[in-house]
Design goal:
It is built from 5 helices and 8 strands. The protein is an alpha/beta fold. The protein has a domain of about 120 residues: 3-Layer(aba) Sandwich (Rossmann fold). It is elongated, with a radius of gyration of 25 Å.
Length: about 210
């Protein structure tokens, strides 16, 4: 019974941790010191991904966040359709159609996975009669073995760049990473929130 309860406890912890979403952080950010008064507006959000569902979700989450913050923004896939690998021509076309003043482009830099092996354990449980304080000395104990467990951690690193359309200059850039993202809206929302907080800190976003 104790062995079963132990397994249930571990499973419960795993479910709780997975429900919290991935750990995410901004690992590096930069802002052009010559554009101290720049404020991003009419932002065209472009996600670069060959997975259409992820591309649309990323763009939508960013647009929703900007909109809720009082900044007008547009998702690229709603302006010109999903573009997995946008080139200069497609970006210029989207900018013209959207009337964008700023462009935010995000893409995956790399993704790496590491597998960890958690060693097995042995604990002992009483077998047979297990009475009160005076009745267990003669009990026989049996060893219960829990086998090793493998777990894989995946780190996805992103780069996000904000450009000024009028000058085509890079205004702000940030690199971020997420641990074991499940590509759910809650995952994207957490990462986008961190990036927007950094933009506000750097002064390019109200």
């Amino acid at each position: 019974m104790k062995h079963v309860l132990c397994i249930l406890f571990i499973l419960g912890c795993c479910l709780s941790l997975s429900a919290c979403g991935p750990k995410a952080k901004v690992t590096y950010s930069w802002v052009d010191p010559e554009l101290k008064q720049y404020q991003a507006k009419d932002i065209l959000v472009i996600g670069v991904s060959r997975k259409e569902a992820s591309l649309k979700l990323w763009e939508n989450v960013f647009v929703d966040r900007f909109t809720n913050g009082g900044v007008h923004a547009m998702a690229n896939h709603k302006v010109v359709g999903p573009v997995p690998d946008p080139d200069r021509k497609s970006v210029e076309t989207a900018i013209q159609k959207a009337g964008a003043a700023s462009v935010l482009i995000s893409h995956v830099v790399d993704s790496s996975s590491t597998t960890y092996t958690h060693p097995g354990t042995i604990h002992y449980e009483p077998r047979g009669f297990y009475g009160g304080m005076y009745g267990h000395y003669g009990s026989i104990y049996q060893a219960v073995y829990t086998p090793p467990v493998d777990s894989t951690r995946t780190v996805v690193r992103l780069e996000s760049n904000l450009y000024d359309v009028a000058t085509a200059k890079l205004v702000w850039s940030a690199q971020s990473e997420a641990l074991d993202p499940k590509l759910l809206r809650t995952d994207f929302d957490r990462i986008v929130g961190l990036l927007m907080a950094d933009m506000k800190k750097k002064g390019v976003l109200h």
